[in-house]
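Researcher: Let's do a round of design. I'm pasting the structure tokens now; please hold your answer until I've finished.
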């Protein structure tokens, strides 16, 4: 509960937090931003760290020349790429070991059929999943981990990992650079950040619920068919 409250407070006051840090510690702000983005994308246990809002506010401060735009973009892209790579390597290393365990009692909680389905999904849609997940909080933390577990090839993963990082960082930092200091946006930044997070998460939730309902409906239709597979008269 305390962690959640701290996260909400950090998101709601991200502009004040970053501004105060710049004034107090100067160039060390680049290291802090690098570390936050790296940890959010690289450590599956830290999905609650601010990502989108931090990039946007960083761009806004670059527009006032308190930060260097080129350096900011370069460091954030490197942090995003290396963070995802670490997450992928962790999943690739521990995934098969966990699912091949012979520890009694643990096996019953592991669904190897689900792992195979995940592998098949990433074979078909893994590239666009890695790219689109960049823009969805929490999901972007787990996507590279799952890609590693599903044994997605390193070469293919890195292709979409780098593309997604460039798109994510450039879009949000430049949006902050050009629009972050408009008085209206500055005044209602907290609301805009929360609406943005909701806009990213809600469609994913709705899509998941819709797929679940459709699977249940298909299962019910299959249950009323006779053994020969032909529909009832």
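Researcher: That's everything. Go ahead.
Model: Designed sequence:
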């Amino acid at each position: 509960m305390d962690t959640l409250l701290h996260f909400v407070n950090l998101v709601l006051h991200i502009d004040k937090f970053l501004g105060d840090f710049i004034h107090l510690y100067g160039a060390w702000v680049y290291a802090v931003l690098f570390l936050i983005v790296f940890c959010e994308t690289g450590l599956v246990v830290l999905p609650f760290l601010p990502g989108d809002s931090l990039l946007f506010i960083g761009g806004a401060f670059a527009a006032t020349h308190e930060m260097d735009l080129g350096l900011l973009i370069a460091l954030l892209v490197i942090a995003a790429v290396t963070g995802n790579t670490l997450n992928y390597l962790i999943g690739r290393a521990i995934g098969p070991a966990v699912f091949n365990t012979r520890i009694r009692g643990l096996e019953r909680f592991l669904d190897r059929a689900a792992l195979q389905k995940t592998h098949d999904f990433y074979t078909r849609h893994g590239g666009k999943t890695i790219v689109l997940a960049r823009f969805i909080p929490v999901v972007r933390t787990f996507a590279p981990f799952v890609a590693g577990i599903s044994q997605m090839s390193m070469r293919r993963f890195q292709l979409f990992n780098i593309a997604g990082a460039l798109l994510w960082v450039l879009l949000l930092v430049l949006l902050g650079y050009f629009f972050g200091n408009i008085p209206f946006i500055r005044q209602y930044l907290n609301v805009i950040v929360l609406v943005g997070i909701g806009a990213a998460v809600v469609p994913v939730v709705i899509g998941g619920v819709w797929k679940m309902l459709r699977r249940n409906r298909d299962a019910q239709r299959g249950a009323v068919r006779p053994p020969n597979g032909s529909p009832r008269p």
